[in-house]
C-alpha cells in the first residue's frame, strides 16, 4: 500500500484526570475514506481536535505527508487538512459565497495594507477567490443560494456550505464530524453522493458518523473507538461483524447488513 497521507501515532489526550484519547494509532491513505465510529463520549471529536491542531495531544504525534503537523489550526489547514464540525460553525450573517471565500483566505497572499489601499494584487486575488468560491458552491449544489445568508439556509444546505468552505482551502484530506447529524433520509443520501464526488476529486476523507448504513456502505476502512481506545480496526465487513463492536456500539447484531436509517 502507498505511504499514509495522515498518520497518527500513539496519540493521547487527557483533560485533568480524564483520558479522552488513549494511545490511538490511525492512518489514512491517499484517496481513502476511513470511518471513525464509537459510542457517545468515546473520544472521536477529541481525536479530530488533536489531528487538526485545536488540541495539542498530551503525547504522541500526527504526521501529514510525512511531516509533523504543528498543533496550530491555520498551519494544519495550510498543510492540506480541512474539517467540518459536529455543531455547524458558519458565519451566520454572511452570505453563502462570503462563507466559502473566508475558507479560501488561507491560500491568498493579500496583506491588510493591500486590502485597505485596494492595490491590484488585492483586486486580482479577490476576483479569483470569488470565482473559486462560486465553483465550490456549484460543486456542492448551492449555486442557487450564492447570495443567501447562511442563517437562512436549510439545515442540510448549511452542512453542504460547511463542506464547500472546507473544500475552498484546497485540502488533500477532509475531516467530517457527523456530516449527516440531524438530516432526513433524503438529505443523508445526498450527503453520501456528495462525499463520493469529493473522493472522485482524489481527496482522502476521515469521517465520524453514527449512521451505520452510511459508514459501512461508504468507507474503505473503519476504526471503532471505545473509551478513548481503538477497539477494532479493519474493512467494513470485519468491523461490522465483530462481536465486540456489536456489543459496545451497535447494541444488537446487524443481520444481513444495516437497514435504512439505522442509528446507534
Ligand atoms: N474540553 C474538554 N474538557 C474536558 N473533558 C472533555 C473535553 N472535551 C471532551 N471531553 C471529554 O472527553 C470524552 C470524549 O469526548 P468526545 O466529545 O471526544 O467524544 P465523542 O466520541 O466525540 O462523543 P459524541 O459521539 O457524543 O460526539 C468525554 O468524556 C468528554 O466529556
From TrEMBL:
Keyword field: ATP-binding, Nucleotide-binding, Transport
Domain ABC transporter: from-to ranges: 6-252
MF (Gene Ontology): ATP binding; ATP hydrolysis activity; L-isoleucine transmembrane transporter activity; L-phenylalanine transmembrane transporter activity; L-valine transmembrane transporter activity
Tagged with keyword Hydrolase: no
SUPFAM superfamilies attached to this UniProt entry: P-loop containing nucleoside triphosphate hydrolases
Cellular component aspect of the GO annotation: plasma membrane
Highest taxon above the source species: Bacteria
UniProt cross-references to CDD domains, sorted A to Z: ABC_Mj1267_LivG_branched
Cited Pfam families: ABC_tran, BCA_ABC_TP_C
Keyword Membrane carried by entry: no
Listed GO biological process terms: D-alanine transmembrane transport; L-alanine transport; L-isoleucine import across plasma membrane; L-valine import across plasma membrane
Protein name from the UniProt record: ATP-binding cassette domain-containing protein
Amino acid at each position: 500500500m502507498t505511504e499514509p497521507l495522515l498518520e497518527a501515532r500513539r496519540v493521547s489526550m487527557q483533560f485533568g484526570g480524564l483520558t479522552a484519547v488513549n494511545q490511538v494509532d490511525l492512518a489514512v491513505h491517499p484517496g481513502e475514506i476511513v470511518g471513525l465510529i464509537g459510542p457517545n463520549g468515546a473520544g472521536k471529536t477529541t481525536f479530530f481536535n488533536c489531528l487538526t491542531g485545536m488540541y495539542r495531544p498530551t503525547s504522541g504525534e500526527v504526521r501529514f505527508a510525512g511531516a509533523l503537523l504543528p498543533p496550530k489550526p491555520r498551519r494544519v489547514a495550510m498543510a492540506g487538512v480541512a474539517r467540518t464540525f459536529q455543531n455547524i460553525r458558519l458565519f451566520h450573517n454572511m452570505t453563502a459565497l462570503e462563507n466559502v471565500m473566508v475558507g479560501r483566505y488561507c491560500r491568498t497572499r493579500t496583506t491588510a495594507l493591500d486590502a485597505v489601499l485596494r492595490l491590484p494584487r488585492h483586486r486580482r486575488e479577490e476576483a479569483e477567490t470569488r470565482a473559486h468560491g462560486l465553483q465550490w458552491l456549484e460543486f456542492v449544489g448551492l449555486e442557487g443560494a450564492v447570495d443567501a445568508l447562511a442563517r437562512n439556509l436549510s439545515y442540510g444546505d448549511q452542512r453542504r456550505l460547511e463542506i464547500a468552505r472546507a473544500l475552498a482551502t484546497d485540502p488533500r484530506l477532509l475531516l467530517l464530524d457527523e456530516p449527516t447529524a440531524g438530516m432526513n433520509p433524503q438529505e443523508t443520501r445526498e450527503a453520501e453522493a456528495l462525499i463520493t464526488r469529493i473522493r472522485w476529486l482524489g481527496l482522502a476523507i476521515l469521517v465520524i458518523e453514527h449512521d451505520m448504513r452510511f459508514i459501512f456502505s461508504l468507507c474503505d476502512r473503519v476504526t471503532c473507538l471505545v473509551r478513548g481506545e481503538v477497539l477494532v480496526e479493519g474493512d467494513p465487513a470485519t468491523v461490522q461483524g465483530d462481536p465486540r463492536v456489536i456489543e459496545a456500539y451497535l447494541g444488537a447484531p446487524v443481520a444481513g447488513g444495516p437497514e435504512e436509517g439505522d442509528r446507534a
